[in-house]
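To whoever is on call:

I kicked off a structure prediction for a single chain this morning and the downstream step that reads the tokens threw a length-mismatch warning. I double-checked the sequence; it's 220 residues and nothing unusual in it as far as I can see. Pasting both halves so you can look.
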Amino acid sequence: MTAEGQPIHFQRDKVVNREFILCGTCYLVFVPPKYHITTQEQIDRYLSHNNDPSDPRYRTFLSRLFDEMCPYFVPDATALDYGCGPGPALSVMMSEANLVVSTYDPYFAPDESSLNKQYDFITCTETAEHFAYPKNDFAALDAMLKPGGLLGVMTGILKNLEDFSGWYYHRDPTHISFYNKHTMSWIANRYGWEVVFPRDNVVLFRKRVVGNNEMPFEER
């Protein structure tokens, strides 16, 4: 995750003109800061989404991640919905599963005291693609995740770099960081996490416990 890389695409349409760079180290595709839209433009875009916690369709969408994490839940364990947005539906779903849940979002739940704790579970749904500096966010997530804790990320995963120009996911002007399995594995290696890809666009990381030979994900 460096500021340097190779240009691979330039988007020019009615919404935005911007360049996309491929990191030669971790293969993250990112939009340089000079092309980022303003904070208010981001907020307006997020508020246009229908993220009502009571909407069954939205809950079904979030269940793609929730259902993969649920077998690991323990009553009264702590959880953080990181990047919860204006409608923190996933935090409601985790509360219903008897977790003690905190929320954080830089625009809609900016209580930074939530960032000064450690958690058994952290969720990051449709958020990682908005990271302006993924290195900083993943470092923060590592600091907040307890040893043995589980981090669930749901974001668009690019399958083939050759398909990037026609990929719908990069057309949203708030989407500025794009990951593939190599990127996610690189992140896991950097922080000493285990990683699995249980379904499309869902990634689970577990922070290893030093000296603990815990059963890997795929054998559970």
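Update from on-call: the warning came from a stale cache, not from the record. Cleared it. Sanity check on the structure: The first strand starts at residue 6 and ends at 12.
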